[in-house]
Write a structure and sequence with these properties.
Largest sheet: 2 strands, antiparallel
Distance between the termini: 13 Å
Order of helices and strands: EEHEEEHEH
Number of helices: 3
Helix content: 40-55%
Structural class: alpha+beta
Strand order of the largest sheet: 1-2
Strand content: 15-25%
């Protein structure tokens, strides 16, 4: 039986886009269309799907902002973190929010950093796939 792909139609993502001052928050929670996440593989697939959707959404937003004006007036600087958060407008709180905010503050360029928590999702995916092989 094949492993569900993070890009599969069996993975649905609830995406929230929030604006707070000069910040854009893109949050994603992936859910299995089958309604089951009983195995490490299932949870790993959903986590990876969420991360991919956030990276894709971030790239899309950055590209749209860059193309909005031929002069480079709008640039994106930020960070992608993974973990728990709560969005109750106008409040956005949680360990993932703190990690992303701290990482963004430390950047000296117009880039988007992938934080260690988000990289751990990729590492977990590799470990689960290797164990299943």
């Amino acid at each position: 039986m094949g492993r569900e792909s993070p890009f599969s139609a069996d993975v649905a993502c609830d995406i929230r886009l929030e604006f707070l001052s000069d910040s854009i928050v893109l949050a994603c929670e992936a859910k299995s269309a089958r309604g089951t996440t009983n195995s490490d593989k299932d949870r790993d697939t959903l986590n990876l799907a969420s991360l991919f959707r956030v990276i894709d959404g971030t790239a899309y937003i950055a590209a749209k902002l860059a193309m909005a004006d031929p002069k480079p007036n709008l640039v994106v600087r930020g960070a992608i973190a993974w973990g728990e958060f709560l969005i109750e407008s106008p409040f956005i709180i949680g360990p993932a929010v703190d990690e992303a905010a701290n990482a963004e503050r430390d950047l000296d360029a117009a880039v988007v950093e992938v934080c260690p928590s988000a990289l751990s999702v990729c590492d977990a995916s590799v470990r689960v796939q290797a164990a299943a092989a």
